[in-house]
Amino acid sequence: MVKHFISLEWKSFFRSASFGKSLAIKIFMGFFASYLALIFASSGFLLMLYLERKQPETDPFLFFNGLIFFWFLGDLLIRFFFQKLPVMTVKPFLTLPVNRGQIVNYVLKKSMVSFVNFLPLLTIIPFGILLIVKGYTSASVVISWWVMLILLILINNFLNFIIESLSAERELSFLPIILLTSILYGLNYFDVIDLASLMSKAVTGISKNPYYLITPIAILGVLYGFNFNILIKKLYLDSGLRGKVKEVNAANLEWTKSFGDIAPFLQLDLKMIWRNKRTKSSVWILLMGLFYGLFFYPQPTYQDLPWFFMLIGVFSTGIFLISFGQFIPAWDSGYYKLLMSQNIKYEQYLKSKFTLMAFSVVVLFILGIPYVYFGWKVLIAHFVAAIYNIGVNTHVILYGGSFNRKKINLDQKAAFNYQGTGAVQWLIGIPLLLFPMGLFALLYFITNFEIACAILSLFGVIGIVFHQKLMKSITDKYTKSKYKMIDAFDQEN
Amino acid sequence: MITTLNLSKKYKNNEVLNIESLEIPKGQSFGLVGNNGAGKTTYFSLLLDLIQPTTGHIINNSIQVNEGEDWKPFTSAFIDESFLIGYLTPEEYFYFIGELRGQNKADIDTLVAQFEDFFHGEILGQKKYLRDLSKGNQKKVGIVAALIGNPEVIILDEPFANLDPTTQIRLKGIIKDLAEKQGVTILISSHDLMHVTDVCDRIVVLEKGRIVKDLVTSEATLKELEAHFAG
């Protein structure tokens, strides 16, 4: 039976419609995975090196165990957002003569061999070997330490699914996990209960007395059983396998009427963003973009690099423009045929998107005004970036959209979702981010900060002045690709 | 009203549609029948300018559909679920289509109120998104949305499929009423020979993209069609 399941899994991967089509994404994901693997693999060595150089008196084994608590919390948090139990794929098996228990066991066991679970091994195996080689601990202790940590990884694996299934039903489903981890962290941080050293002692103790491994095994068993019970109850079409139907509040959005003939599309866009998983969960990206500058500005190194302000400015005022704009018109791919057969003007449709993006730039600029704390130049650079975004980047991204040929399914989560991503999304980054930054840097070095600002604003103003003309040629481009888009959006990928 | 001339559609070397000439007069209820792959949906897609013809053209009320867009205001269609916007409630969807077709909310409310028994209390005021409705109910929404804005040409692909018997009967009433009393040209395709002979003045049979029969509906039509498809 398991053999069948595995062969189906294999086929679903290699026969999926998107396989082979999106090589760029695969390469990127490959790089990303190897990058992560490299980080994990080297951190074991680096930690050992660091301890030997800087703190020769600490026992690396105990030091590492002291960190386990924090790793445990971080791991749980990351898993919650990125790891999902693939239950939906079992639907076709329900009517076949396959034991429900078997299906559940398969789904659960499959989750154990995920990439996330292998990553920590890359750290602990070299570190453990170093411990033995350098004579800090005996081989037998390290082996039971490995077993202990693998059990801990699996405990986290199953704990995550339980937390997920308990909190999935609610609005703001990520609140419980954040509360849980921050309470645990807080208890430790404020010395209410020293969880970190408790955990460290437990891990050290168990490693030295392998008989105690029975405790984590028992915990794992209980968690597995708990998961099994939750899942087996869900394997019915009317419970877990059914999409949830929430009662909705029809929104009014009458205020959009003041935008005139683009109002219906503006309403539609706002509803789309708010009512779909994919768009809704990318709203938090806005926060990330807004606070992007805080990674750089507090550091004195960047304070002396005014040419760098432009990149941060373009990014933080244009984050919505980029994340929303790059998938125009694929956002509407699900009902593109309707739009194309309706009595609409392409121009109004595109203008609505333009208005939304331009508006977002203004709002994000205003929200970013506190950056003035890091100096007037930062604020001026952001202002210039906002003008450039409205005048140039909005048009660039709308133009780029006419090359979009990939459907987007709005019901799926945004994080690590590359559906709809094609070469366009990668290429568009060049004119969008790199060009203004490059130009600004060049002008800054040739002339000075003020002239560089003036020229970039000029670009923006020119774009705003020629808005009508630019929109006209963009509309023509869309009209020309109409049939190709309809055809492409019809394909599932 | 609708003139089709030398229309053909090829995918690579595979010809899926070839209609030398077809004339549909105003106010006719026109039925298109044929097995899977006969070219029904292809013809409707060409009529809506969703795909490009390989040769020939369609003229809808003196406008060639693949050249102008002025046929859009008086033509409406429901082909499949991709004509629905999943994240809107039925009311919002009707209002949206209404706005595109120059109707205000009150117009839409009056129109939709006429279809209360067609909806059977399962569509309006349900506080559900279209994506959460059953297939049959989605179809009802799509069909009614195609009636918004007093179109002169209505195109419905497989309108009877997925509907319950009560709704099928009501839908037949609606279609007959539109064609006879309001002079609307209605094009429908169907696999159900009985329904299509019930509502259509004229039935065209497509086979592998070609017209093989063109009948004016009479008592004998159903028998003739059944004999043809029993083959």
TrEMBL record, chain A:
UniProt superkingdom: Bacteria
Per the record, the coiled-coil ranges are none
Q: Which Pfam families match?
A: DUF5687
Specify the protein name. ABC-2 type transport system permease protein
| Record flagged with keyword Ion transport | no
Q: Which InterPro entries does the protein's record reference?
A: DUF5687
Key words, A-Z: Membrane, Transmembrane, Transmembrane helix
Q: Where are the transmembrane segments?
A: 23-50, 62-82, 115-137, 143-163, 172-190, 210-232, 281-299, 305-331, 352-373, 379-402, 423-443, 449-467
UniProtKB/TrEMBL annotation, chain B:
Q: Domain of life here? A: Bacteria
Q: Which SMART domains match?
A: AAA
Q: Which Pfam families does this UniProt record tie to the protein? A: ABC_tran
Q: Which GO terms describe its molecular function?
A: ATP binding; ATP hydrolysis activity
* UniProt KW Heme keyword: no
Q: Which PROSITE patterns match?
A: ABC_TRANSPORTER_1, ABC_TRANSPORTER_2
Question: Membrane spanning segments where?
Answer: none
Q: Where's the ABC transporter domain?
A: 2-230
The record ties this protein, via InterPro entries, to: AAA+_ATPase (IPR003593), ABC_transporter-like_ATP-bd (IPR003439), ABC_transporter-like_CS (IPR017871), ABC_Transporter_VariousFunc (IPR051782), P-loop_NTPase (IPR027417)
- Tell me which CDD domains the record gives: ABC_DR_subfamily_A
What keywords tag this UniProt record? ATP-binding, Nucleotide-binding, Transport
Gene3D superfamilies documented for this protein: P-loop containing nucleotide triphosphate hydrolases
**PANTHER family hit by this protein:** ABC TRANSPORTER ATP-BINDING PROTEIN ALBC-RELATED
Entry protein name: ABC-2 type transport system ATP-binding protein
Organism, scientific name: Seonamhaeicola aphaedonensis
